[in-house]
Amino acid sequence: MKLKPIGEHVQNDVDLPGAKRVRMRMLVGPDEGAKIFHMRHFEVAPGGHSPHHKHDYEHEVLILKGKGTVKSEAGDRPCSPGDVVWVPPNEMHQFQNAGDEPLEFICLIPAPQDCTK
């Protein structure tokens, strides 16, 4: 079992094409031996956004802090603390900070099939 505050996890810049002012913490993942799900914490600075992208797996998102816009194929929608977002596989999406403070959210994804730890 692991019990550790979010702030004690290492936070790294998201270095993907299209990402702007985004940082991520891997809360539960390969280092813990998680083979089914990975839990990540994202922080998007004011004026920042995740890449506009899609992938072949779903993910679940819980907005913790800040104000944002979720860009999707169905249009742009505002999001705020307490909102839950489900992104189905292969849907174009992006998280944009629409406020003056960081946009923070938890994101769950399936563990990659090649996750061997």
Q: N- to C-terminal separation?
A: 15 Å
CATH topology description: Jelly Rolls
Let me know the CATH homologous superfamily.
Jelly Rolls
* Global outline: globular
The percent of residues in helical segments reads: under 10%
Mean pLDDT: 95
Give the secondary structure arrangement, pairings included.
Layout lengths: L10 E3 L6 E9 L8 E13 L9 E7 L2 E5 L2 E5 L4 E4 L5 E5 L5 E8 L7
Antiparallel strand pairs: 1-2, 2-3, 3-9, 4-7, 4-9, 5-6, 5-8
Description:
With 117 residues, the protein is mainly beta. It has one domain: Jelly Rolls (Sandwich). The chain has a 6-stranded antiparallel sheet with strand order 1-2-3-9-4-7, with no helix packed on it. The mean pLDDT is 95.
Quick structural summary:
By secondary structure, this protein is mostly beta strands. It is built from no helices and nine strands.
Sum up the structure in keywords.
mainly beta, six-stranded antiparallel beta sheet, 117 residues, globular, three-stranded antiparallel beta sheet, Jelly Rolls
